Amino acid sequence: MSFNIALSGLKAAQKDLDVTANNIANVNTYGFKESRAEFADVFSTSLFSNAKTQNGEGVLTQVVAQQFHQGSLLFTSNALDMAINGNGFFVTTDSPLSRDFTYTRSGAFKLDADNRLVTAGGDFLQGLPVNEDGSVKSVSLSTTAPIQIPDSAGSPSATGAVDMSFNLDSNAKALDPYKFNPLDTTTYTASTSTVIYDSLGNSRIASFYYVKVADPTTTNAAATVPGSGFDALPADPNDATNANSWVMFSTVTDDAGVQKKVDLGNDLLSGGAPDARTFSTGDPVGDPTSHTGMLLQFDSSGSPVASTFPVPKTEPLGTPLNVTITPPPTAPYDGASVVTNGANPDQQFNINMSNLTQFSSAFEITALSQDGQTVGRLTGISIGGDGLIEAKYSNGDAQAISKVALARFPNEQGLTQIGNTSWTPSRESGEALAGEPDSGTFGSIRSGTLEQANVNLTGELVDLIAAQRNFQANSRALEVNNQISQNILQIR
């Protein structure tokens, strides 16, 4: 019997050595979780035996328990490297259409030939579907799909709206609007520009110029000459007082990059009467037709003056541009609609300038944006702490692609190891519960970070020495038992 007891001790010591050696071997394996050999004594008794005198029958390996505490984080320069700071597992499958999920803590992901996120072993990282704003559509493992990053931002879209907000300096020097020339910076007070796109994704520069002028004193409704509404300007614009008027001009580059005029108003209404809220001057860019600006006026508080705009007719102003103004009747300076000619002569974009001010401060743009875009190529990926993956493109667009799916289990130590730092559920672990990163009991995602093995190398080396001593002691017990047996056999 003592031989069996010593032999069980040797087997237990060998198992302890094996587990410790495996931990040491995987000290540099990302996402690896150390194991611990747990033993129990063997004790047999019966109805007629005396338990007080029983000595036990050795030792057995009860379980090799995995330890799922957090490993240290290693920072990298790869945005696709991810670590879970807290509870949860990444969800992976071995094929895009598979529903056979495996779970891992190793976040060393990369892109395959189809721009899908995969592990080093080729398993596909699963993500939750999201809306355009990044909110999750459904939190369920059944709705997850392999995360794929589009390499382009889809089809180009024409600019449909430009939003501008700015302050015009009330102390600016009044200029002569008849001398406006976009090529001469001395003929206008301030300017700004933005990029717009047509339906084919071609970019153009839309520029806007602001000329401080003296307040018009009359509106000559019968006048048909350029400059309607400005016929009574003082001889010297600098002599004007209470000048709360500006004229806004605009140009847009054509396909060749040449500035072409854009009329922000029309000289004549359909009935032939001039529009007092527009101003015309000779086009200095090269087109012999007039260059029409739009009158912007402010009250003593610096707010734009409300007025009702007539609806002017649309007049062609030469290739490739023409314009019409269709603002709401009660909100001034909203909705200047620019029509670009060329491949799509019906393309329009609305200019929203409702948030204008004229204060005693420098010209300042407080908002300038447009909604068009050209075809964009993938330039980068960002992954937030909530697992939301956004793709950034060369056209400035950013799209929410997916959100990394996480899973947790009622009993992590019941998971079954399958290699490649992956696990599958078992009866002991319970079913997987899906969730979003950084919500509830789920940990957050750290992009550009890898979780290292949670192995304490110093502790493992000490355990290795202890297991070795244990093995030696059991070997010695076996040797003593053998010597006793030899002595018994030699009795005569």
Automatic annotation (TrEMBL):
Keywords: Bacterial flagellum, Cell projection, Cilium, Flagellum
Aminoacyl-tRNA synthetase listed as a keyword: no
Domain Flagellar hook protein FlgE/F/G-like D1: 83-154
Compositionally biased spans, kind Polar residues: 416-427
Designated name of the protein: Flagellar hook protein FlgE
Main function: A flexible structure which links the flagellar filament to the drive apparatus in the basal body.
Gene3D superfamilies associated with the record: Flagellar hook protein FlgE
UniProt subcellular location: Bacterial flagellum basal body
Leader sequence residues: none
Domain Flagellar basal-body/hook protein C-terminal: 447-491
Domain Flagellar basal body rod protein N-terminal per the UniProt entry, residue ranges: 3-33
Membership in a protein family: Belongs to the flagella basal body rod proteins family.
Transmembrane segments: none
Flagellar hook protein FlgE D2 domain ranges (all copies): 167-372
GO (cellular component) term, any one: bacterial-type flagellum hook
One Pfam family of this chain: FlgE_D2
UniProt xrefs under InterPro entries: Falgellar_hook_FlgE_sf (IPR037058), Flag_bb_rod_N (IPR001444), Flagellar_basal_body_rod_CS (IPR019776), Flagellar_FlgE/F/G (IPR020013), Flg_bb/hook_C_dom (IPR010930), FlgE/F/G-like (IPR037925), FlgE_D2 (IPR011491), LlgE_F_G-like_D1 (IPR053967)
Single biological process term from Gene Ontology: bacterial-type flagellum-dependent swarming motility
Chain spans, region Disordered: 416-441
Superkingdom of the organism of origin: Bacteria
